[in-house]
Write a structure and sequence with these properties.
Helices cover 77% and strands 1% of the residues. It has 356 residues and is mainly alpha-helical. It is globular, with a radius of gyration of 21 Å.
């Protein structure tokens, strides 16, 4: 009972922090029909600054980090991203009423990482005085790219097999030689698919800003501008982002009416299942490398999150057959706010399992 009371107390105290307050406030404004609007260019600028801040901080820390201490959580982050997609292929993608292509696009977005959720987790740990590895932002691309590539490759391979099967049988069962095989379109598809996904992912606004900050942090000396500009602005910019995301989440809920109710259940449950997977991976890293309790929390936060910036456009380009209402509605409408609201749970669990 004491453990439950401690976890409940931690969750209640974290819910009162500015990060979650602005998110909930944005949802309330949208629910009341408020006309408040943050211009899209301002929103994009805020996101860019936040990602540059995360990337710079990670790069500065990577420059001084033990490579083994970084490599273990990086590999685990990639495995978690792949694991989330594989779980989704056995659950959502096979649910009655869910198109396999829509399902795969959705699980790919949920396996990828939300930069805003990661930033929210960092801010909440900072406000609670909980330390975490500075290189944690460098783990973002490992999980993000692993999930997106896995989901898109599996979806495209399934589509290629279906096309090959349809092409081999035509008319009244007459066998034809067109349409597939290892050396046909399926083989060509697979040969260039991963390269195209990697190119599109790294060219996306979110990953570009993050990787730029990471490279500058590693190879330059940006400490002065980081400390004088990015660090002081971080929490204020994050509050604006949370407000926008709260309003966006509420407006996206209407899109879920266009798709199967399975997406609603997935959007509510998946962040907790995925977060638990990330938490378990973090505990493994803690056991072998001394990964901090704050690092365990942020790995769980990344796993629980669903991409709200890089994932949707990547899926729109790689899987144009998928219905955006499914993966955008489930992710932005439910997945992201649930993931952010679950951050106090991971903090409480880390406090109970490790002590912070």
């Amino acid at each position: 009972m004491d453990m439950i009371a401690d976890i409940a107390g931690t969750i209640i105290s974290q819910m009162q922090k500015p990060t979650l307050a602005f998110l909930i406030g944005g949802m309330m404004l949208a629910a009341l029909g408020s006309k408040l609007e943050v211009p899209a260019p301002v929103y994009k600028f805020v996101v860019m600054l936040l990602l540059l801040k995360v990337g710079l901080g990670a790069g500065i820390s990577v420059r001084e980090a033990d490579l083994v201490a970084l490599a273990v959580p990086a590999v685990l982050a990639a495995l978690v991203g792949i694991g989330i997609v594989l779980i989704g292929t056995r659950t959502l993608a096979r649910t009655k009423g869910v198109s396999p292509m829509d399902g795969m696009a959705t699980v790919g977005v949920f396996g990828a990482v939300s930069a805003s959720t990661l930033a929210a987790g960092m801010a909440m740990l900072d406000s609670a005085g909980i330390a975490y590895e500075g290189f944690i932002g460098a783990l973002y691309p490992f999980m993000d790219i692993a999930a997106l590539v896995t989901a898109i490759v599996l979806a495209r391979m399934a589509a290629a097999r279906q096309a090959a099967a349809a092409g081999q049988v035509s008319g009244g069962g007459t066998m034809t030689m067109g349409g597939g095989g290892a050396g046909g379109p399926g083989g060509a598809l697979e040969s260039g698919l991963i390269r195209g996904i990697l190119r599109d992912t790294f060219q996306s606004a979110a990953i570009s800003a993050l990787v730029l900050g990471l490279m500058i942090g590693i190879f330059a000396r940006p400490e002065s501008v980081y400390a004088s500009f990015y660090e002081p602005l971080f929490r204020g910019l994050l509050s604006v982002l949370m407000l926008v995301m709260g309003m966006e989440a509420w407006s996206r809920l209407s899109e879920l009416r266009k798709v199967a109710h399975a997406y609603v259940a997935y959007g509510l449950i998946a962040p907790f299942v995925h977060g638990a997977l990330g938490f378990g991976a973090g505990m493994i890293a803690h056991h072998f490398t001394g990964f901090s309790a704050g690092g365990v929390v942020l790995l769980a936060v990344m796993a629980a999150s669903s991409s709200d910036i890089s994932g949707p456009p990547t899926m729109r380009g790689a899987l144009p057959e998928a219905n955006p209402s499914s993966y955008v509605g489930a992710s932005t409408g439910l997945g992201t706010p649930v993931a952010i609201l679950s951050i106090p749970l991971w903090i409480a669990l880390a406090n109970w399992a490790i002590g912070v």
